[in-house]
Write a structure and sequence with these properties.
5-stranded mixed β-sheet; elongated; alpha+beta; 14 strands; 255 residues
């Protein structure tokens, strides 16, 4: 459903990017150059720079020489707990997360977690990494959650797309992209982050055939031209995802 995917993109951009910008890339046939800001306080955002970045290249093959990813995550979680937040949720793009788990520091920590007996011998990091290298994605996720000591980790899987007309082939081409920003970890006290503000659609009279979707926020309408033997379907939905707990949202930008 195009409307559901649109709301997924909106929501994930508001959360991970702290804003939603309408552009030619995501709204080619609509308004462009308009930005809706979530207004997250600047002091809530930690952006790693230089050699403190987890990765210093685009392909995530070169680790920052001063990077300490386990400490980076724990520092934010512990700071939130000192403020009284006992139940914490973390959100991260799943693809980006699994790439991050290739970092030596994570492999070492996860290996020791999965095989605690390795801690009994000094200088066992290589063996711990070997254990982590054999772990499944589900094992990596479970170990990560336990190591950072949070209530929930949401691995965002949103994949959306925009259709544009190829001027040569005259065909619609769909370009897919992830809805949640890579290299971004978002922390917040567990629970809903906001709401969806909608403009109620105008419903037709009783002669029309239509149905409602997304909890009555949108309508889909059907019309048939008996003379031309043409069916016509169209839908209407106008909404904006609005976070209302921005002062409680904390960010780690890892590269």
């Amino acid at each position: 459903n195009a409307h559901e995917l649109s709301m997924t993109y909106q929501r994930d951009q508001m959360v991970s990017n702290r804003s939603l910008t309408l552009s030619a890339a995501n709204n080619p046939r609509g308004i462009k150059g308009l930005t809706f800001s979530a207004s997250v306080p600047a002091e809530n955002v930690t952006t790693l720079t230089g050699d403190y970045r987890w990765w210093t290249d685009a392909d995530k093959t070169v680790q920052g020489s001063a990077s300490n990813p386990v400490k980076d995550i724990r520092d934010i979680v512990r700071a939130m707990k000192r403020k009284g937040y006992t139940t914490i949720t973390v959100e991260v793009d799943e693809v980006s997360f699994l790439q991050d788990m290739d970092h030596t520091a994570w492999r070492t920590a996860i290996g020791y977690y999965l095989q605690p007996t390795l801690r009994q011998t000094a200088s066992n990091d290589a063996n711990a990494q070997a254990v982590a290298n054999l772990a499944s994605d589900d094992q990596l996720k479970a170990a990560f959650k336990a190591i950072i000591d949070v209530a929930e980790v949401k691995y965002k899987q949103g994949l959306v797309g925009v259709e544009t007309l190829n001027s040569e082939s005259k065909e619609l081409v769909r370009t897919p992209f992830r809805s949640f920003n890579a290299n971004t970890y978002v922390f917040y006290p567990s629970g809903p982050l906001g709401t969806i503000k909608v403009v109620s659609p105008l419903t037709p009279d009783d002669t029309a055939m239509y149905g409602k979707f997304l909890g009555g926020r949108g309508i889909i309408q059907y019309e048939y031209n008996a003379k031309q033997k043409v069916q016509d379907w169209w839908s209407e939905f106008t909404g904006l995802c609005v976070p209302n707990r921005v002062n409680e949202m904390y960010y780690l930008i890892t590269k």
